[in-house]
Amino acid sequence: MFQRTNSLASYGRIANSETNPIKQIVMLYDGAIKFLNLTAADIEAKDMIAKAEHSTRALDIISHLQNTLDFEKGGNVAIDLDNLYRAVTALVLRASAELNAPLMRRASATLIPVREAWQANSQRSIPTASHQMAAVAA
Predict the structure, then answer these.
(1) Packing angle, helices 71-98 and 130-137, rounded to 10
(2) Mean pLDDT of the chain
(3) Which of 132, 126, 137, 106 is closest to 33 using CA atoms?
(4) What is the model's pTM?
(5) Residue 50 CB contacts under 8 Å (≥ 6 apart), including other chains
(6) HEC profile of the chain
(7) Exposure class string for 4-14: b at 16+ Cβ within 10 A, else e
(8) In terms of C-beta distances under 8 Å and separation of at least 24 residues, what long-range contacts does 83-90 make, across chains too?
(9) Residues whose CB falls within 8 Å of the CB of residue 80, separated by 6 or more in sequence, listed in order
(10) CB contact set of 120 (below 8 Å; sequence gap of 6+)
(11) Who wins on pLDDT, 134 or 75?
(12) Rounded to the nearest 5°, which phi and psi values hold at 22?
């Protein structure tokens, strides 16, 4: 339990050093995608300890993204992102239970277009109210 909190806290420290909240979101997506791909590799290598750690880290990041959604300000975008996070979480849990590396990679691939959209958005604008943008955007 300590490691889960500690790993998410370290992502938080890195993300908080970035002043653009949209770039913070991109970094969180990068982490989730990385850990999902590592989990797929762990499944193939039959390393269940690493699989558990990496999938937990990915789920922690996805959960964090989901928990920061602001449905009042984000409207339909927040609803769509919530549905995406629920679907990815379900894929991760299923892939983990079935030890299905291709399904785990599908979960990772599902996040890539959204991550790329955030990346494109981060290059267009620098928001002034970081907390508000992060809550609406995530």
Answers:
(1) 50
(2) 85
(3) 106
(4) 0.79
(5) 38, 42
(6) CHHHHHHHHHHHHHHHHCCCHHHHHHHHHHHHHHHHHHHHHHHHHCCHHHHHHHHHHHHHHHHHHHHCCCHHHHHHHHHHHHHHHHHHHHHHHHHHHHCCHHHHHHHHHHHHHHHHHHHHHHHHCCCCCHHHHHHHHC
(7) eeebbeebeee
(8) 84/110, 84/111, 84/114, 88/62, 89/59, 89/62, 89/63
(9) none
(10) none
(11) 75
(12) -70, -35
Alpha-carbon distance of 60 to 6, in angstroms, equals 11
Interacting residues of 37 by C-beta distance below 8 A, sequence separation 6+: 104, 105, 108
8's tokens: 């998410």
* Structure-token match 């009042």, residue found: 72
Half-sphere exposure of 61 (CA within 13 A, CB side): 27
pLDDT higher than threshold 90 for residue 100: yes
Pair of tokens at residue 9? 């806290």
